[in-house]
Specification:
Elements: H1 2-17, E1 20-24, E2 28-33, H2 39-55, E3 63-67, H3 71-78, E4 86-89, E5 92-95, H4 98-101, H5 107-119, H6 121-125, H7 130-141, H8 154-163, H9 167-188, H10 190-201, H11 206-214, H12 218-225
Parallel strand pairs: 2-3, 3-5
Antiparallel strand pairs: 1-2, 4-5
The chain binds zinc ion.
Zinc ion binds at residues 113, 117, 134, 137.
């Protein structure tokens, strides 16, 4: 009975999304509705991948990219809102319908940002904090957001990223993440930061590696760096 129900659900879903095509390329496998033309987004994926790799981050040999028929299907599958353009889940990149994506000038940067999250997937599972992950994604993708709100502690920043529903507060949190990680890269050098991320990916602890590199504990560094002077 349960099996029948699952089959029925899958069939209903497939019907509501139209026919799906699987297109295998050298670096990506696209899963998309047959009605959507992937030519343009393929170029974006390749150029975002190049940018992430040139920065020094390693990506899996082939990333699966799931493209949806409608925004609500995208939101339902990812748990994101319909105003997000892209997201990642279990190492896969999820994208809004291509006609919508192609109208948005920030889409290429967003794809780069999400590919950084895929590159940092193992480090994140090993405890790389969300604020550092988001900041790194923004630094690599060349994104910026205004900091209209000041965060006093890393915990407050992290809580906002995880829980806030307020758009301007979230934008400030992202802006702060970008500034903090940008500052850290500037202080320590890109290759040292990349080596730290690889070490965390291999099982190292973030606070230990951060302290080793910065020469001071994370909390002290945050107290010095959080105020935007
Ligand atoms: Zn992100």
């Amino acid at each position: 009975m349960l099996l029948l129900l699952l089959c029925f659900t899958a069939a209903t879903q497939a019907k509501s999304q139209g026919k799906l095509l699987v297109r295998k390329m050298a670096n990506f496998t696209l899963v998309l509705p047959s009605s959507q033309d992937p030519t343009h987004v393929t170029g974006w994926l390749e150029s975002a991948r190049k940018q992430v790799r040139e920065y020094g981050l390693a990506l899996p040999p082939r990333v699966v990219v799931r493209i949806y028929s409608t925004s609500s299907q995208f939101a339902q599958a990812t748990g994101l809102t319909t105003s997000h353009l892209a997201g990642t889940q279990n190492g896969r990149l999820h994208l809004q319908p291509l006609p919508l994506l192609l109208r948005r000038p920030e889409a290429l940067r967003t794809i780069g940002h999400e590919l950084v999250h895929i590159a940092l997937g193992q480090a994140a599972r090993n405890g790389l904090p969300r604020w550092f992950n988001e900041g790194m994604a923004m630094v690599v993708a060349g994104e910026q957001q205004p900091e209209s709100i000041r965060f006093v502690t890393l915990q407050a920043l992290q809580d906002t990223l995880l829980r806030s529903q307020n758009y301007s507060v979230i934008r400030s949190a992202y802006g702060t993440c970008q500034r903090l990680v940008g500052k850290f890269v500037e202080q320590q050098g890109k290759s040292a930061v990349l080596a730290m991320l690889r070490a965390i990916g291999n099982g190292g602890k973030f606070p230990d590696h951060f302290r080793q590199l910065a020469g001071i504990p994370l909390e002290k560094w945050a107290r010095q760096t959080l105020p935007n002077r």
